[in-house]
């Protein structure tokens, strides 16, 4: 779907992450700053949750899986694509 070379307007060419970068780089500076700030805040909250959590999380295992476990790599890529699509949507809806 994303790599449909027959699409004349180019809307769906490339990957979601590539399109997200294109949207961020071409959006107004204020909108891009707001979206990047939102992403940083969300990531910071996740990190704080990991730090405060009573659950034993093995970050080395997660890092290893992210590079060596194909099923985990696929889920991670899908999550990144989802975040990129959501981010593009927020920027584009406010840029109109």
Short description:
This protein has 96 residues and is an all-alpha fold.
Describe the protein's architecture and organization.
The N terminus is likely disordered. The chain is built from 4 helices and no strands.
Structural class: mainly alpha
Instruction: List the total number of helices.
Output: 4
Low-confidence spans: 1-6
Tertiary shape: flat
Task: Based on the model shown, name its key terms.
mainly alpha, single chain, 0% strand, 96 residues, 4 helices
Protein topology:
Layout: H1 16-26, H2 29-52, H3 59-68, H4 70-95
């Amino acid at each position: 779907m994303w790599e449909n070379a027959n699409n004349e307007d180019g809307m769906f060419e490339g990957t979601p992450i590539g399109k997200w970068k294109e949207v961020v780089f071409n959006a107004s500076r204020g909108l891009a700053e707001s979206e990047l700030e939102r992403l940083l805040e969300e990531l910071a909250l996740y990190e704080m949750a990991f730090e405060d959590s009573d659950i034993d999380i093995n970050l080395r295992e997660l890092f290893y899986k992210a590079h060596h476990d194909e099923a985990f790599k696929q889920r991670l890529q899908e999550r990144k694509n989802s975040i990129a699509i959501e981010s593009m949507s927020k920027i584009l809806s406010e840029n109109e």
